[in-house]
């Protein structure tokens, strides 16, 4: 076998000669010429630079506070009574008061993926395949059965007298009563009922209960969010695939939803980590935070286990954004910075 | 709402995915066998840790071979079979078709095939792939990271000092046992 240095010079020279004779595929030829000339820069860079810049005219929220959730790997947020913020992180539900001070956590039996909190303080925490319930006092009171082998629960929401669980693995929204009985599923493709089917390439399916009584569900592979009745009728869709600020970028966005007190929707995206607000007609109403607010997240990219954001809204209408990469909660209030 | 709390039937896509996963692993194992037979004296070979690769482009330009021994491989069981694959399409494609101007691979090494609405399958033609990692970056930034680089041992010379490893900014190259020559991604999430 030749040494690398011997091979290196000879091979490249011969390669270039062959390129000049057109004996290597044309695409590779063009690439290689550029590559050999550009020693220091990456001639194959996947350039999202221009797309990552947020037009300041759209940014009509400002950051008022941020804090670390303590170095753990967090996934989702939810508010409970008294604006206590619950954070699903590793095998715990971390809890923080309005000032961001840590309260005693709840320990789950495995990695917790998402959480929801009832008005009486009961905490529903989901592991990948089943839910665990904590009484308002903090003790674990129940563990529900797994609904199936493909289940990957990625979001919970309380409403309609029960609990909704977004199952990214089975690509459906599960409906439970509060005793843990599985009542049914919505969101599966049903062309006869105008239900397009949820397209969920990665475990970021989200569900929220809107003040209008309908569910809001993201459909990331179709680059939009959708409204469903409790019976599974699809009542509307909003969003379009585009790297432009008005739509949703990449292969699968938005990845998370939250609802403002006035009913407008907050969306989170990965890849280009950004948080936006859409009005009732699905028109972009403003940007809460652009990629500039999450530089480490931007660098990490959006593959599962790497990046991602989540958001929750407190009783004052402030948007709390969880940066999964830095394990930081950013708090945003309406209005431009310094206004 | 669907009436019963039963698990939905596996879709054709799921079936396809599982089948492809098996064939991908079988292919890698077959290659490992062929390589092991040629390199009995060597107990380790070079491989790329996909978790450390930062998609710098050096894999296309620094290998001692005419065309790099590094290729993009595809973890079908991680792939979302996305209609808008950010490994396949330019960041802002004009439309989601296979027209050359919409593709970002510099050598058109990725084949896009319709499976069922709205899913598409993506396959790498290793004869065309130069290991530039452009698709890997697109998939890692926006998608599931199912596209990633591996040294293909049916091509690699297993140099004492890998010329790419010397310059790899991610320190992603390492020696692995010749009996397990690939660092395959398997976990879906
Ligand atoms: S040289 Fe290293 S960081 Fe660059 S593309 Fe190859 S493995 Fe990835
Ligand atoms: S973009 Fe680069 S790494 Fe990906 S298939 Fe094409 S040549 Fe290979
Ligand atoms: S060991 Fe040699 S042939 Fe193999 S990838 Fe590195 S430089 Fe290329």
Describe the structure.
The complex is a heterodimer of chains A (339) and B (189). Chain A contains 4 helices and 24 strands. Chain A starts with a helix and ends in a 5-residue tail after the last strand. In chain A, the strands form 6 sheets. Chain A has a 4-stranded antiparallel beta sheet with strand order 1-24-23-22, with no helix packed on it. In chain A, a hairpin with a 5-residue loop joins strand 8 and strand 9. Chain A is globular and about 55 Å long. Helices cover 21% and strands 17% of the residues of chain B. By secondary structure, chain B is of the alpha+beta class. The longest helix of chain B is centred in the N-terminal third of the chain and has 27 residues. In chain B, the strands form 3 sheets. Chain B has a two-stranded antiparallel sheet with strand order 1-6. At the A-B interface, helix 1, helix 2 and strand 13 of A face helix 3 of B. The complex binds iron/sulfur cluster (3 copies).
What distinguishing features does this structure have?
heterodimer; A: 339 residues; mainly beta; Neuraminidase; 2 domains; four-stranded antiparallel beta sheet; 4 helices; 12% helix; 38% strand; globular; disordered N terminus; B: 189 residues; alpha+beta; two-stranded antiparallel ribbon; two-stranded antiparallel sheet; binds iron/sulfur cluster
The general outline of chain B is: elongated
Number of helices of chain B: 3
Major sheet attributes of chain B: 2 strands, antiparallel
Name the structural class of chain B.
Answer: alpha+beta
Mean pLDDT of chain B: 83
In percent, how much strand structure appears in the residues of chain A? 35-45%
Let me know the average pLDDT of chain A.
88
The CATH class assignment of the largest domain in chain A is Mainly Beta
Runs of chain A in which pLDDT lies below 50 for 5 or more consecutive residues are 1-27
What fraction strand of chain B?
15-25%
Uncertain segments of chain B are 1-30
Helix content of chain A: 10-25%
Query: What class would the helix/strand composition of chain A place it in?
Result: mainly beta
Summed up, the helix count of chain A is 4
């Amino acid at each position: 076998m030749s040494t690398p240095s011997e091979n290196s010079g000879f091979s490249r020279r011969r390669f270039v000669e062959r390129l000049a004779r057109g004996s290597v595929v044309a695409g590779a030829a063009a690439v290689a010429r550029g590559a050999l000339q550009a020693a220091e820069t990456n001639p194959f860079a996947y350039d999202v630079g221009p797309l990552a810049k947020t037009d300041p005219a759209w940014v009509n929220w400002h950051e008022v506070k941020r804090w670390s959730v303590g170095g753990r790997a967090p996934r989702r947020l939810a508010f409970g009574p008294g604006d206590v913020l619950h954070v699903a992180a590793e095998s715990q539900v971390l809890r923080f008061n309005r000032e961001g001070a840590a309260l005693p956590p709840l320990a789950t039996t495995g990695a917790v993926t998402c959480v929801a909190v009832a008005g009486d303080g009961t905490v529903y925490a989901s592991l990948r395949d089943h839910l665990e319930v904590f009484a308002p006092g903090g003790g674990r009171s129940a563990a529900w059965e797994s609904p199936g082998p493909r289940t990957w629960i990625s979001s919970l929401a309380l409403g309609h007298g029960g609990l909704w669980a977004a199952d990214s693995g089975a690509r459906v929204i599960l409906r439970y009563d509060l005793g843990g009985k599985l009542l049914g599923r919505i969101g599966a493709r049903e062309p006869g009922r105008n239900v397009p089917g949820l397209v969920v390439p990665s475990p970021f399916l989200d569900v929220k209960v809107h003040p209008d009584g309908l569910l809001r569900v993201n459909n990331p592979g179709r680059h939009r969010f959708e409204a469903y009745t409790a019976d599974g009728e699809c009542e509307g869709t909003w969003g379009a695939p585009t790297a432009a600020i008005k739509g949703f970028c990449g292969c699968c966005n938005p990845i998370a939803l939250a609802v403002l007190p006035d009913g407008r929707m907050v969306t989170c995206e990965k890849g280009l980590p950004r948080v936006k607000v859409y009005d009732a007609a699905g028109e972009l109403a403003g940007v809460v935070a652009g990629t500039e607010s999450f530089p480490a997240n931007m660098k990490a990219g959006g593959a599962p286990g790497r990046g991602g954001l989540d958001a929750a809204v407190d009783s004052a209408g402030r948007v709390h954004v969880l940066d999964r990469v830095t394990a930081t909660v950013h708090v945003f209030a309406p209005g431009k910075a310094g206004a | 709402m669907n009436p019963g709390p039963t698990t939905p039937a596996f879709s054709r896509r799921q079936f396809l995915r599982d089948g492809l996963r098996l064939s991908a692993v079988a292919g890698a194992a077959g290659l490992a066998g062929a390589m092991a037979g040629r390199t009995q004296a060597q107990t380790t070979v070079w491989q790329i840790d996909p978790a450390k690769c930062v998609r710098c482009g050096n894999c296309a330009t620094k290998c001692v071979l005419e065309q790099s021994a590094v290729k993009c491989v595809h973890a079908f069981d991680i792939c979302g079979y996305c209609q808008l694959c950010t490994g396949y399409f330019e960041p802002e494609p004009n439309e989601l078709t296979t027209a050359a101007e919409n593709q970002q691979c510099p050598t058109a090494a990725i084949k896009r095939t319709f499976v069922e609405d709205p899913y598409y399958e993506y396959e790498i033609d290793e004869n065309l792939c130069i290991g530039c990692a452009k698709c890997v970056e697109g998939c890692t930034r926006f998608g599931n990271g199912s596209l990633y680089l591996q040294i293909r041992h049916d091509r690699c010379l297993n140099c004492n000092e890998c010329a790419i490893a010397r310059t790899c900014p991610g320190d992603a190259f390492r020696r692995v046992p010749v009996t397990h020559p690939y660092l395959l991604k398997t976990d879906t999430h």
